[in-house]
Design goal:
three-stranded antiparallel β-sheet, two-stranded antiparallel ribbon, 6 helices
Amino acid sequence: QNLTRYAKTERDVLALSNHNFIVNMYLLSRTVESFLLLEYCPGGDLGKVLKKERKFSEEIARIYIIEVMLALEFLHAKNVMYRDLKPDNIMGTSSVNQAVDFGLSKLNVDESYSSSSFLGTHAYLAPEILGNRNYGKSVDWYNLGVLMYEFLVGVPPYYSDNLEKLYENI
């Protein structure tokens, strides 16, 4: 049931997204066996690239962060909160990097909206989420900061192999 909901959310976000730094959806089947056809991303995800490179130069990190920032601004203008920004959700095409995997996104999020849902990837969770406090689109900007740190240092800030310690650090 959750997987179906995540797939529908991803479809809905991609349907309203037409942006250079968000992967394109080309075909949507509305038959019993629906599927999404997304743009080919031969560069793989930035998580794998980062693992290989260990960290990025300031120049490369700056380019990646600007691309993601522009994608987030676009999504926020469309009242979409991403909530799962991480290197694994940024794919490389032949010329740019694009955000993908919008399954945890939230639609119809205006400036007054707040959520208390506990979701996301452990090392990227904002303090508001861990503290079970209401949050809005600002968690995406927190994630952008975590992403920038990881690009420059090679690991997310506050990182620990121990989940309890990671949460405590955050």
